[in-house]
Write a structure and sequence with these properties.
Distance between the termini of chain A: 41 Å
CATH architecture of the largest domain in chain B: 7 Propeller
Structural class of chain B: mainly beta
Number of domains of chain B: 2
Structural class of chain A: alpha/beta
CATH architecture of the largest domain in chain A: 3-Layer(aba) Sandwich
Number of strands of chain A: 15
CATH superfamily of the largest domain in chain A: Response regulator
CATH topology of the largest domain in chain B: Methylamine Dehydrogenase, Chain H
Number of domains of chain A: 2
Largest sheet of chain A: 6 strands, mixed
Number of strands of chain B: 28
Strand order of the largest sheet of chain B: 3-2-1-28
Oligomer: heterodimer
Largest sheet of chain B: 4 strands, antiparallel
Radius of gyration of chain A: 21 Å
């Protein structure tokens, strides 16, 4: 099937006019960005949909950030982006870009698409997963050249589990939606609950199919009847019914999880550690707030830019080695340097816990200790993962 | 500059054979839009004045009659007359000014415009913008060498030191340092520049004649997670003996031997320590502690923290007026 070439957008930031006196050899860094989001199906809460270009605009900002740095070094960065309409089209675009010589990719797509792409990846291709939180990609479906900038579900739910424990809200009522993602989020939470000593006193699947905009106040109190609990935990990744849980629970209790107070990679309310500057830079570019998907794509391309700046070259294998070395550190507005886990390529990062208009806290929390780094109290630690992508 | 002043101060002291007048410390409170004024003798806040939105970098004019204030969210630099404590002028600053540095000629103000990736040079007497220089992402730290030859800007996301020739207003050299460079401080003789890298956790020592790094320092605060050791502000004693490095959320200030670059001690101060300044005889060091909303006073001879003074919310910069 033919598609007009204009569908593939090419962004080139040519900064050659600003070349400094002491420029090193010119390096042209080509990065491919492919996005594929399956239809989420109809959702009850469709008031504030996720932006369609979530991820893409983060990638564009990172290219611009890299280029500003690059102009002092003689390095240029090019982003070729493709928003695909099916998994097949996404994999095809991946193959086509590889044939054009692109070795560095950021992929914003589900785990199954990533796995299909990695089957077609050449040994020189380095891929950043910015779209899937699936724990299996970090636990057993490992690919040596696949890194992850989006936090896994396990990282998100560990952040929440630590916080619940810290607040001593250790009895929770869990509601899980019907989708595969909801189930994955809920199993990650069950693991976190066990890990941090949080007791799930009720574990109920969401089964109602009525429109809660009319009936939430009647149905949810009954649904959340139980002896006692400290909080209600919602697993509703696509945002179907979860927005109607807060204030409609049987007991007057806070709601946390995918709605209410949520663990996220990024949110507009994060402003410390210079994040205010990143937020305003993003807003100037995109005319909207930066999402977790934008942040993950941004972090991937900034990782590449940081490595190219420090290393002075753009060979994908050498960049990979550098990114996993002690010399690599990513400054990414989360209050500490970020590094990648050697065993599964996951970017270690603090997890903000946010409500729609404010930051509540940022995990990991003091007191949750780890023999190597407290950052590894979030997500699948080395013994919990079968991945050994660095041998 | 400092030593020069010290001599004058000493001369004045000897001539009058009377105790020095207490000097005033000015502290910008980022989230209160105020300036706290502290009497360094009584170590108390004697006045709090309203200034522009989100005040961060502050500095004194070379004749100590004015205080320049980066009012970041007002996109302006305000000029405070110290005698009347009134804002007497605003300067064009470019967007989101964060830090700045005044050339020894007392005229050329170099302003880092964090949101715009430029450094703006303003003539404070004519209010003319003399130049706008493209630098890396999130320009932050600004310093002008005491001999007036170099203006150095740090760009946080680009992780570089940009060396700007103060005659041509052009970048002559870029030096890649650790992640998120925040602050540059020159030695009195303009021969050595100290640059802190907040996320890198390092301080880079640059030979100014060669424009090359000659040493890289790192810090280990006992009992503090290494990730929280984030160097920001740097202050040097004029005798070349000590450097003080504010280590951010580790809540400590490192005392460094300025000739061997060896860390001599870590002093516990308030939460998230950012900037610091010495008083006129360099017996006391003031630090701003953003999260705890206070200023710590360090006795330089004993190397001990002797007092903490409550100021406004998120104190950012501190300067002590040696002339008051």
């Amino acid at each position: 099937m033919f598609r007009p070439t204009s569908v593939i957008a090419v962004l080139v930031f040519s900064m050659l006019s600003a070349l400094p006196i002491h420029a090193a050899d010119t390096i042209a860094v080509k990065i491919g960005y492919i996005q594929w989001a399956p239809d989420q199906g109809p959702v009850l809460s469709n008031v504030l949909p996720e932006p369609e270009d979530a991820g893409l605009r983060g990638a564009e900002l990172a290219i611009s950030d890299n280029s500003t740095t690059g102009k002092f070094m003689g390095h240029t960065y090019t982003l070729t982006s493709k928003v695909a309409e099916s998994e097949q089209a996404a994999v095809k675009a991946f193959e086509a870009l590889q044939q054009q010589g692109v070795e560095l990719f950021v992929i914003n797509a589900p785990a199954s698409t990533l796995n299909a792409m990695m089957d077609k990846a050449s040994p020189a291709t380095l891929v950043f997963n910015s779209g899937s939180s699936d724990d299996s990609l970090r636990a057993d479906e490992c690919h040596p050249n696949l890194l992850h900038t989006l936090p896994s579900y396990a990282m998100l739910t560990d952040a929440l589990g630590q916080w619940l424990k810290m607040r001593r809200w250790s009895q929770v009522f869990l509601i899980t939606g019907p989708t595969a993602a909801d189930q994955a989020w809920a199993s990650a939470f069950r693991r976190s609950a066990k890990r941090f000593g949080v007791k799930i006193i009720e574990d109920k699947p969401w089964t109602f199919d009525s429109d809660l905009r009319r009936t939430a106040s009647k149905e949810l109190p009954l649904f959340t009847q139980a002896n006692d609990y400290d909080a209600v935990v919602v697993a509703d990744v696509r945002g179907d019914f979860g927005e109607y849980v807060p204030f409609n629970t049987w007991l007057p209790r806070p709601v946390v999880g995918t709605q209410g107070m949520s663990p996220v990679a990024w949110h507009r309310v994060v402003e410390s550690w210079g994040a205010a500057q990143l937020q305003s830079r993003f807003y100037d570019l995109a005319g909207r707030d930066m999402t977790s998907a934008d942040y993950a794509a941004w972090a991937a391309i900034r990782s590449l830019g940081t490595a190219v700046t420090q290393l002075g070259e753009a060979d994908a294998n050498n960049l990979r080695s550098f990114i996993f070395s002690d010399r690599f550190q990513l400054a990414a507005f989360k209050g500490r340097k970020l590094t990648y886990r050697l065993w599964n390529g996951q970017l270690r990062q603090p997890i903000p816990l946010v409500h729609p208009r404010g930051l509540v806290a940022s995990a990991p929390f003091e007191g949750f200790i780890h023999p190597k780094t407290e950052m590894d109290t979030l997500g699948l630690d080395e013994p919990e993962s079968a991945c050994r992508i660095n041998g | 500059m400092k030593s020069l002043f010290r001599h004058t101060a000493l001369a004045a002291l000897v001539g009058l054979s009377a105790p020095a007048m207490a000097s005033l410390a000015y502290v910008s409170n980022e989230k209160d839009n105020t300036l706290s004024i502290i009497d360094t003798e009584s170590q108390q806040v004697v006045d709090t004045i309203d200034v522009g939105a989100r005040p961060r970098g502050i500095l004194l004019s070379k004749d100590f009659t004015k205080l320049y204030i980066c009012a970041s969210d007002d996109d302006t630099v305000q000029v405070l007359d110290l005698a009347t404590r009134k804002i007497i002028a605003t300067l064009p600053s470019g967007e989101d000014p964060e830090q700045f540095a005044l050339h020894p000629n007392n005229k050329h103000l170099y302003i880092a415009n964090e949101d715009d990736a430029i450094v703006t040079v303003v003539d404070v007497t004519t209010k003319d913008v003399l130049a706008q220089i493209d630098v890396g992402i999130e320009p932050e730290g600004m310093a002008v060498s005491p001999d007036g030859k170099w203006a150095v800007n740090t760009s946080e996301t680009t992780s570089m030191l940009h060396w700007i020739n103060t005659e041509s207003f052009e970048i002559e050299k870029n030096i890649v340092v650790g992640q998120r460079p925040r602050h540059v401080e020159f030695s009195n003789d303009s021969k050595i520049a100290w640059a802190s890298a907040e996320i890198g956790g390092t301080v880079h020592i640059i030979d100014v004649d060669k424009l090359e790094q000659i040493h890289e320092m790192s810090f280990k605060v006992p009992g503090v997670n290494q990730d929280r050791v984030q160097p920001v502000g740097i202050e040097l004693t004029s005798d070349g003996k000590y450097a003080f490095v504010a280590l951010g959320p580790s809540n400590h200030v490192a005392v460094v031997d300025a000739s061997t670059y060896e860390v001599l001690d870590y002093l516990l101060v308030g939460s998230r320590v950012w900037q610091l300044d010495l008083n006129k005889d360099e017996t006391q060091l003031y630090t701003t502690n953003g999260v705890s909303g206070d200023v710590s006073v360090i006795d330089v001879e004993d190397m001990k923290v002797i007092k903490s003074i409550k100021v406004g919310r998120y104190p950012w910069g501190v300067v002590i007026d040696p002339n008051s």
